[in-house]
Structure formats: structure tokens, C-alpha cells
User: Fold this.
Amino acid sequence: MLGSYLTLAAVLFCIGLYGVLVKRNAIIVLLSIELMLNAVNLNLIAFSKYGVVPSLTGQVFSLFTMTVAAAEAAVGIAVLIALYRNRATVNVDEYDELRR
Amino acid sequence: MATVFSQYAWLVPAFPLAAFAILTALGRSLSRTGAWIATVASLASFVYSVMIAAERLAKNAEDYIGGFAWLRAGSVNLTAGYEVTNLTALMLVVVTLVALLVNLYSLGYMKDDERISTFFSYVALFTASMLGLVLADNLMILYVCWELVGVCSFLLIGFWYRKPEARAAAKKAFIVTRIGDLGLLIAILLLFWYMPGHALDFASLHNVFYAQSGIISTSITTLIALLIFLGAVGKSGQFPLHVWLPDAMEGPTPISALIHAATMVAAGVFLVVRTFDIFAAAPAALDTVAVVGAFTAIFAATIGLAQNDIKRILAYSTVSQLGYMMLAVGAGSTTSAMFHLFTHAFFKALLFLGAGSVIHAVHTQDIREMGGLGSRMKITAWTFGIGALALSGIPPFSGFWSKDAVLTAALDDNPWLFAVGVVAAFLTALYMARLFFLVFAGKPRGDAGAHARAKESPAVMTAPLIVLAALAVVAGFVQTPFSGWLGSWLTGGAEEEHASGLAIVASVAASLLGLYLGWLIYSKGAVRRDAVSSRFPRLVRLAERKYYIDELYDALFVKSLRGLGKALSAFDDVVVDGAVRLAGRSALALGRLNTRLQNGQIQTYGLAALVAAVVLVLAIAGRRFW
Assistant:
């Protein structure tokens, strides 16, 4: 049972990773990050139910993670809006500030 | 008598050293003034040396040793000090006097040279290091000065570095003497190893090798002595390392007089005399010195007979006379060696400066193009004649007394050495007669216009000639067969009177015969000049080509070394440099790749991190299967 949950989480994580690395649109990149986070949540819950030592703590942890993820998404969107105002684009290829 | 002046003997080399520093610091802005600064400094040295010598003339003057601790490493103490003995006092006077006169002479000779202040600064440095060599109280300091002297010689031979011959000669002199220097260095290291307490000062050497001989085994002593002698052979131009000295004549003539006739080349003889205790403890080494000296004396004299360059004849004569000095040391008579060094310094410097005066007037060095200069250059001709007579060993000139002392010593040691010495004396007289009559007597040959313009050199050049000529006449009387004043002063022993009728008669007869034959051939023409060369063309050609020694060395050493050098250079180019270039290029390529990655896009970085993580995981997982 645990195996199928973990596989699903791995598939979700890979889809998210693909999106982060490949997509041009910054919004989609942010969405993909959420996808990866949720894959982690799925893992946490799966282990809390079917792990070696089942415990409710894992589910509580996943609630915390969701809260943090919401906050992170908010910050991410805020940064994105600031960037958009500056550069007038959401194309990630054109964000090369790190080279400066 | 107190050692008032000797205490400050370090001042003697300090004056020219200061002059060198001033000239180097102020350089070209001084030009003519710089020459005077150097001359005044050498005058100061000379005056002070004379005061030291005067102090030492007193009976029982004590040797003075001063200095300071230079290096302390473990139990080893190296001192940098100076030692004033009668021997060093004598050398001080000789070196400073010749240096002073050469400085004066150069004021005239180098007048039109634009690098005159550089020239004088080199001369000052040379004088300082030569005086340091003389004063050194241990072998280490002596070696430092020895090398400094070599460097100055190199700089001054190559002074006219635009001439390719001068450059080649400078390099040759430096490299050839280096062979000898290496020998000296190894000898010093061996002494350092074997001497009790690692002492290198001459006083300890004297104690170990003379007073308590037997501390160091005879074989090691012989080895050390031979290596020291190798150093002397290099510096003093003895066979087989004599090849650099004649080539060194490419330098300015005053330099030939100062360095390559009177002082530096005598350093080898001085070294052997200074370390004579070591040689005395190794009879085999002493015999080697005598044989090499005798061979060099006759060998160089035969070459000198066939040369046509006025300075080269004198150079071979110098080699030959240095051979005499070595012969004297080898025969066990340091006194006569120093005596000959003393007189030779004066008359050979005189001859060189006279030759310089001639070259200055006619602008050629080939004696076949000279002739008849005696009437135009009276002072030069007279002084040169005196020098030639002194060199030939005609009484009562100084060369006679010293040569006689050398020959007497040789006769005491071995009749064969004596015979070689007498033949060399005959050859010496012959080539000096040839030189003198070809240059100053007869009719002008060569370019008539140049001869018409030839006139006596200025007073600043002739005055040193006159002083040296006077010295060449009287310097011999300090040690005659009838009063061994110099010997007893130098060695501190009783006055020895080595009168040997055979030596006097033989040497005078040989010299007179040589002069007479020279006069017959080259002045009177009673014997045809090509009488010998037409009958034995091979022999004359052999001497003219200096016995093909240069060619032999070229074929044996220079070519093979050059081949080795080329091979090594190719190896360096391909393998060593190749490896370095490979490392450099690969780093560069890696850098280029990384620049491509460094595009500022977070996604690329993320991809790189992902790839790295995957590789890491694969590597860790894959370890199980190895």
C-alpha cells in the first residue's frame, strides 16, 4: 500500500520538477513548486498511516507544511509582481539578474 | 709598534666600494665627474695602503685580524673579517697602485666613451673586490670576493658589448673560469667538512696543516690542494684553462692592464701562496703545480711568438709569466712567486698601458701594420722598451731579479723544471724583441696616413707609463741574490741568500740570446723572417693557431654540450611545456564551459543541481555493485 502512495508522490514530484526547470511562464513555475511541495505532503501522510511507526504527528506536520506553503506562495507572487512591474514580463528566460 | 693603521684596513676596499655606490646611484648625470670620483677613491686607497705597509715595515709587526661574526648556524660560526699580514700589505700596495695608475690612464684612454662613468664604476667595484680578496681572513670571504672579481672581469671584457667578439670573449672568460671556481668551491666545502670546528680562516688552516699536520689524511689533503689549484688554474689562466685570457683582450686596454695582467690573474697565484700550508702537506699536489706552471710557461711563450695582435702577444706573455709564478710555488718558494708577481704587476701593466698608448695612436692592434713608431712616440717607446727589458729578464731591471729567484727555486727543486724555465726565458726575450722591433723600429708599414697622424698620447696617459717604468727598473732590488729582504719580511724567517751562479748566468744568457736573435731577425734582417716558417710550416702554423686548443675544446665540449642543451631544450619544449600547456588549456576549456552555464537563469542552475544530485545518487548507489 505504502509503495503506491510513494510512487504517486514521486510522479507528482517529477512533474513539478519538470515544470520548474522547463516552463517559461513564472506563474507556472510557482505552481510547479506547489506541486512538488504537495508531493512531499503526500509522503508525510503516507508514512504517518502505513509507516514502520504509524503516528498522527505526520498528519499534523503536513498541516504545518501547507500553511508554510501558502505563505511561500504569497511571497512568491509578491516578488513576481514586483519583478513584472520592473521588467514588464513573466518570461523566466529574461530574468537573468543573477548574472550581474 | 702598534697596529694603528692595520686596524682600519677595511677602509682600503671601502673607498672604491663607496665610489662604486656613488657612481651607480648617480649614474649618467655625473659623466666626467664620476671618473674623477673613482680616481680620487683609488688614490685614497693607495695612500692608506702605503701607510699600512709602512707600519708593517717595522720589525716584528704583529698580524692584525679583525672582523665580526657573520653567520651562526648550530655549532658553526662564520666570520667576515680581514687579516693584515706582510703578504697582504704587499698585495694591497701593488693592487691599489696599479688601480690608481690605470684609473689615471683611463681618464685619457676612455675620454670619448659615452659610458665612461659606467666604466669607472666597474673598475671601482673590481678594485674593491680585489682588495677584499686580498684582505679576507677566511676562505669563505675570499671566495665571495673571488666571484665578485670574476663578475667584474666579465662586465669589463664585455664593456664594448656591441662588438660580438667582446660579448663572446666575456662569456668565454666567465664560463672557463667557472670551471676553476667550482673546484675552489668544492675544496672549501671539503675543508669545511674535514677541518676541526669547521674553521675556514687562514690561521686555523695554518695550525692544522702546518703545525699539527696529520689531522687530515694525506689523500684528502692532496685532493683539497688539487681542487684549490684548479681554482687558481682557472683564474690565473694556466694550461688547460688558459684559453679565456687571450680572448679577454677584447676589453678596453686599461682593463687588460689592470685585471688581466697585474691583479686579478695574480689572484690564483696569491690563493696558492695563501693556502700554501695545504700544498706543503701534499707533495704530489705541489709537484703538479710545478709541472703545470712550467708547462704553461713554455707553452704560452711559443704561442706568443707566432701571434700578430699586440695585446694577444702580451696576453700569452702574461699566461707564460703566471706559469713562472706557479712553477716557483710548486718548487716550494712562495717568496720568489710573490716577488715575481710583484715585479710582473708593474712591468706587465706598463707594457699593456704602452700597448694601449700605441693602439690609441694608430687605431690598429696588428703589429704587422705598425713600425717606426719609436720616433713619433718617444715616451711610449722608451717606457715600453724598459718594460720589455724587464720582462725579458735583463739585469738590472726588476724582471731579472724575480725571474732569477724563480729559476733558482726551480733549480733547487728539479733540474728539468729549471731547464724548461730557461728555455721559456729565451722565448720570452725573443717574442719581446720581435714585438718591440716590429712596433717601434724600422719603417712604417700599413696605412701611411694613420702613421702620419700618430702622435704621443696625452700626459694623463704617459705619466702612469713613466711611474710604472721607474718601478719596473727599481722594484727588483727588494730581493736580490745578495739580500733576501723581501723573503724574510714576507715569511718572517731569516734572510736567505740563494745565490746560484748557474741560474744567473743561464737566465741572462738565455735572455740576451733571445734579444739578439730577435734583433737579428726583426730589426737588422740578417736572418730571414721566414727562415723557420718556410722550413717547418706545420710547426709555425700550429703555434699560430694556438695548438688548436680552442678548436679541440669546441669539438670536445662545446659541440657536445650544445647538442645536449638542444636535446634538453626540445624535451623542455615538448614534454615539460606541453604538460604545462595542457593543464592551462584544460582549465581554460573548463572555464569556458562554466561561463556558458553561468547565464544567470535560475532554471539552468536548478538543472545543474539536479544533474549533480542524480550523479551523486547514482555514484553512491553504484558503489554497491563494485
Notes: The mean pLDDT of chain A is 90.
